[in-house]
Write a structure and sequence with these properties.
The complex is a heterodimer of chains A (281) and B (250). Chain A has 6 helices and 12 strands. Chain A is an alpha+beta fold. Chain A has one domain: GHMP Kinase, N-terminal domain (Ribosomal Protein S5, domain 2), CATH 3.30.230.70. Chain B has 4 helices and 9 strands, in the order ββββαβαββαββα. Classes of the chains: A alpha+beta (281), B alpha+beta (250). Chain A: GO terms for molecular function: mRNA 3'-UTR AU-rich region binding.
């Protein structure tokens, strides 16, 4: 019966819950979903991580390749990330070329990672102007239930932290490249950017902030893409973005920033524990 | 003629299996919340996810008044193979696999029950170590069962190859990537084991017709074994009492 009501009158269904100060899945407005991380699940990838934020599931697979650096920047390597929103993960996404939304999310994730400078691209250079590593990070969303950027960033950072680069020997005269996968050096990852998504629900007299919205809540709060995304990087505030959607008051903005900071600490702990357990094995 | 090193002198294969041994299969139904039906299946190191949406309204161009339209999309993650795969979908191999999947699954679905509707089946290969098509068919069957789509029978797929052991032929069951790459013949069979019928049959390389029956029957036996495993997984899943839809009380 409730399923029927939810489909016929989604706004009223949602409003009834909000008026009682609770969300349809039983959480408080500020409560965020649990994070589950699993590393090294995909052995064909050089590093991998599977992250579940509530029901949202993202797999990150990293592949390494060697390439020639760009002429204007001869001593830096490449870090290329890409988010794929498959039709498998939600009925909202149709098969075919990447939708606008997927490209926007790809861009947001890429910006957060590049701007946080968590990987020093100079570390990826093997021989100046001749050989550099290219790190391809492919994030595949398997189940879309809101807060996709959060899950993607966690998966990406966790896999980067578990990535090791093989040693490469380059002979200058013969231009021969030898890759030794036996001896691997772990990649240096500085900092740990964590993103937190918020949905803003339009309600008189004051708009309501919902932390970590699910897919249904995102739809109610202005559609996918109208989320407020706040980034923290180990105690340093590193980014905030909001494209459209409802208005945000300045007190609420301060509150979201402090909520995101707490979340950052929690996620850091989860990632460190996961990696430590992985190494023990 | 395939290299004799596919089988060692003790009769063991390159990964230590016996010739008629399947790789370990682990599967789980109902892994995702968004699709109507979903399943995850591991066959050795090959890891495949399947999601089913439907039956739902068909787009005007594809709609058929007699039967449901089955739409399959086979996609490999870029990190699934040894070399990074640049085009995960839309290349010829993926389109061919999607078509084969559609043919195999349409044979099992009771298509006449849903005219003017469409069933979407999406397959994502997370790790490919040989037999990705077979794992996809098996995972898709489980996902269809999880979605509640009526099937005539389970569809199971299996590969078989041929090796020589001390001069006598020894058919190999369930070829892995290394054995495929070694250049031996690979026969892929998708069948409905309980009815004994074959939905899809494909063979690569050459095989002498004297040995064909042997390899085919080995593959069909593999399909029957896989059906037992899938059936057990479905029964275990239902015994847990977990269903995605609300439980109906009478």
């Amino acid at each position: 019966m409730t399923e029927v009501y939810k489909h016929i009158h989604p706004s009223k269904y949602f409003n009834d819950y909000i008026n009682q100060d609770v969300r349809p899945d039983g959480r408080d407005f500020d409560q965020q979903r649990d994070v589950i991380i699993n590393i090294n699940g995909i052995t064909s990838a050089d590093a991998s991580a599977i992250v579940k934020c509530g029901n949202t599931t993202v797999v990150c697979g990293i592949k390494l390749e060697l390439a020639r650096p760009k002429a204007e920047e001869p001593d830096i390597g490449f870090l290329i990330s890409n988010v794929e929103l498959l039709p498998l993960c939600s009925s909202k996404f149709r098969p075919g070329p990447p939708s606008d939304y997927a490209q926007v999310i790809s861009n947001i994730v890429s910006d957060i990672v590049i701007n946080s400078k968590c990987v020093d691209l100079k570390d990826l250079c093997v021989v100046t102007d001749k050989l550099a590593w290219v790190i391809y990070c492919d994030l595949v969303c398997l189940d879309y239930d809101g807060s996709i950027v959060d899950a993607c960033i966690i998966a990406l950072i966790t896999s980067l932290k578990t990535l090791s680069l093989p040693t490469v020997t380059y002979d200058n005269e013969t231009e021969e490249v030898k890759v030794d996968t036996g001896v691997k050096i772990p990649l240096q990852v500085h900092g740990l950017p964590v993103a937190t998504s918020f949905g803003i629900y339009h309600k008189l007299p004051r708009n309501i902030i919902l932390a970590d919205p699910s897919a249904y809540e995102e739809e109610m709060c202005g559609g996918i893409g109208a989320n407020l995304i706040v980034c923290w990087n180990k105690g340093l505030f590193c980014g905030i973005q909001k494209f459209g959607g409802c208005n945000l008051s300045t007190e609420d903005e301060k509150r979201t920033i402090s909520l995101a900071k707490q979340r950052c600490k929690l996620v850091e702990q989860v990632i460190e524990t996961c990696i430590k357990n992985g190494e023990v094995k | 003629m395939p290299g004799p090193d596919l089988l060692s002198s003790q009769g063991l294969r390159l990964d230590g299996r016996r010739p008629n041994e399947l790789r370990r299969i682990r599967c789980k139904l109902g892994v995702f919340t968004q699709p109507d039906g979903s399943a995850y299946l591991e066959q050795g190191n090959t890891k495949v996810l399947a999601a089913v949406y439907g039956p739902h309204q068909a787009s005007k161009s594809k709609s058929s008044t007699e039967a449901v339209v089955v739409n399959c999309q086979y996609s490999m993650a870029t990190f699934s193979t040894g070399e990074r795969k640049n085009r995960p979908r839309g290349d010829r191999k993926s389109l061919e696999m999607s078509l084969h999947l559609r043919q195999a699954l349409t044979a099992a679905i009771k298509t006449e029950l849903y005219p003017r509707s469409q069933i979407d089946i999406y397959i994502e290969v997370l790790q490919a170590d040989g037999g990705a098509y077979c794992a996809s068919v098996n995972a898709a069957t489980l996902a269809l069962v999880d979605a509640g789509v009526p099937l005539r029978a389970y569809v199971c797929a299996c590969t078989a190859s041929m090796a020589w052991h001390g001069g006598s032929p020894a058919p190999l069951l369930d070829v892995g990537h290394v054995e495929e790459a070694a250049g031996g013949v690979v026969l892929t069979v998708a069948s409905l084991p309980s009815t004994g019928s074959i939905a899809l049959l494909e063979m690569s390389h050459r095989l002498h017709s004297d040995y064909f029956e042997n390899v085919l029957s080995r593959a069909l036996q593999g399909c029957r074994d896989i059906e037992v495993i899938l059936d057990k997984a479905v029964r275990d899943h239902l015994a847990e009492g977990w269903t995605k839809q609300d439980v109906v009380t009478v």
